[in-house]
Amino acid sequence: MTKRLWFLVVGTVLALGGLAVFLTLRGLDAADKWSSVLSLFFTVAGFALALAGMVGRGPAQSADGAVAGGALRQIRGVKGDVTITGGGASGTPPSSTSVPAPGQGGGTQSAQSARTGGDLTQIDGVDGSVRIQPESPTP
What we know:
Blueprint: H1 3-26, H2 28-56, E1 67-68, E2 72-79, E3 82-85, E4 115-116, E5 120-127, E6 130-133
Parallel strand pairs: 1-4, 2-5, 3-6
């Protein structure tokens, strides 16, 4: 157990013990009123933390267990235009002795246990245009 976790556990136990002593000394009727007020504040704090967790953490891109014979591109949250040059690479995915296990995923895009012989491109949240241009032939 780390020092920080130890202090957190000890502090929580002391705070709860102090609250229990405080409410016991106030009497049953006053303790009931205090607990109602405290539960309101804890409910509001929990709701604010839940909202902050939803807003502050965007969906994640994932290419779980991807084995690609071409390029692997992940593009997310671009303010402007995106141009992808190349592509069309046809290859065989590298051989693997075992099939990758499905990953966590959970975002708006995922490629769980993907095996491709060409390019894999994931695009999300582009505020502009996206152009995918084939590679120019070399003379």
